[in-house]
Here is the input.
Amino acid sequence: MPRRIARYKPRIWVYVHEVDAPASPVLAIDKNLQAIQCTRSSLARSKDGDLSMLRNMPLDILYEIFSHLHPLDVLHLSRSSRGLRDILMSPSSLSVWQTALSNIEGLPSCPTDLTEPQFASLAFDRHCHFCLARNVRDVFWSCRVRSCKKCVHKYFISEYTLRRMLPEVLDIHRCEAIFPYIVYPKPGRNRPGQILYHLPMAEAYIRDLEEVVLSLPDEALSAWSKQKSLEQLQRLQHARLCQSWSTRWGYRRPEEFNVTIVVALLALLMFLWRDTVLQF
Here is the structure.
């Protein structure tokens, strides 16, 4: 009979100074290394993919820990499991996102037309919002999207194309005063750049316009134009602040998810709540 080889269980070591507590199947204290040894069983996942120990911990403690992370780390946590997504996407976790965003030096406040997770994704994520391509650095703040070069040509249109999409009864003198746009490519010495309009938002605006024209063409259209012009002005002002921040401070954002901090904090939580965890 062939000899059975025992499987190696990887261990995660989180060093904690001045730890003195009895050992347990989940948490074992090594007095020589002064460390908490967490085996894979302590981080075992339940059938639905959630970290089981999180169910037994107060949300206030989790929120306090998560609020000290980088917004990109909070984003990755919310995508790591269904349980963490439910926790971090609930209305009660709003303070986590707000605190995490406020910890970033110079970052403008979250705009009113985006949620905090959406703003964190726009500012720190590196994926194209259309095709999910990686390592995309071009952020078009005025349109609230991050796009690769391929998708720019697909989801942004010229003013000529936009005017052909507008209802014939409308005569908008300055489309850039209402419709979100970008200047692409970025202007240079010998390259002025071209104004391109965000196609998904333009289509949404045109649907609104068609309803407005069917109701009260004069009064409703005037009110709609003023409202969209105000929104466009606020969006452009906020975009300039974000672009300035990205130029000065954006390079400091982390390239990859630093899971070490989260594992250390969760291990410490399991140690503090070991009696409750061992009951399950």
In short: The chain has two domains: 8-104+257-280, 116-252.
